[in-house]
Specification:
Elements lengths: L1 H19 L14 H5 L4 E4 L3 H7 L5 E4 L1 H7 L4 E9 L5 E9 L1 H34 L1
Antiparallel strand pairs: 1-2, 3-4
Length: about 140
Amino acid sequence: MNRTIMLIATAIIGITMQVNAQIIKQTKITPIKSSLATLVKLDPVTFSYDKNWLDKLSLKPTHSGFNVEELLKINQQLIVNQQLTYNAGKNNTKTAIIQKVDYEMLIPMLVGSIKEQQQQIDALKAEITNLKGKNAK
């Protein structure tokens, strides 16, 4: 009985929250240009953080990704600052900032570069078909 009441209450709260939710529309929509040119400059790497910080911030010892310093030169929009807190003594916490790749921002660039490559492939196919037609004559 209590479980049933709990499920009904949860459903009502969920429906109420959806009804009260605001939909925020996108504005200033512009296409991303030259995403392929940006992506070909990226070099995947493995890296680690300084050993002292690994323990303080509970970071994994090895990461795969991109060199943030190089990426800043290529496209600063792909970098985000992540704040991590760590214990610096009794009742004392501090904040460290790690610059990371914004992989969510990278996804539209990947899609754009795939589309650019597909346009290049289609143009090459058309050129090959045209050349085959000339050679057949």
